[in-house]
Design brief:
The protein is 0% helix and 46% strand. It has no helices and 8 strands. The chain has a 4-stranded mixed sheet, with no helix packed on it. The protein starts with a strand and ends in a 17-residue tail after the last strand.
Length: 112
């Protein structure tokens, strides 16, 4: 879920079994002014097993059927904009298991 009041960046780490079906959903809550743009960005490669569904103006989801190892370590990003700024939700996906080592950095933006 995207909350403008909590900050602008959220990261979710997800482990996905090979061959499974997955739904990555982004829902906007607490947006004042209202959301003007909501998008989900898959990686640059196009896959026939990815479907993007927009559910009104505050929810969007990416449905992946039959996840493959080709999708391992691919990031899926949700972006929501309103008159004040942009909120991001990034899914870091690991297909077939987590990586041996994870290095993470976090950027925090404070909006007055």
């Amino acid at each position: 879920d995207l909350h403008f009041s909590e900050g602008t960046n959220t990261t979710i780490w997800s482990e996905i079994r090979t061959g499974s079906n997955v739904s990555l959903k982004c829902t906007v809550h607490d947006s004042l002014p209202p959301v003007t743009k909501l998008e989900i960005f898959p990686p640059n490669e196009s896959e026939s097993n990815w479907i993007i569904k927009k559910n009104g103006t505050h929810s969007i989801e990416m449905v992946i059927t039959n996840a493959t190892s080709k999708m391992n370590k691919m990031d899926i990003t949700c972006s929501a904009e309103n008159g004040i700024g942009t909120a991001l939700l990034v899914y870091h996906n690991f297909v077939g298991g987590p990586p041996d080592k994870v290095n993470a950095s976090v950027d925090i933006n404070v909006i007055d």
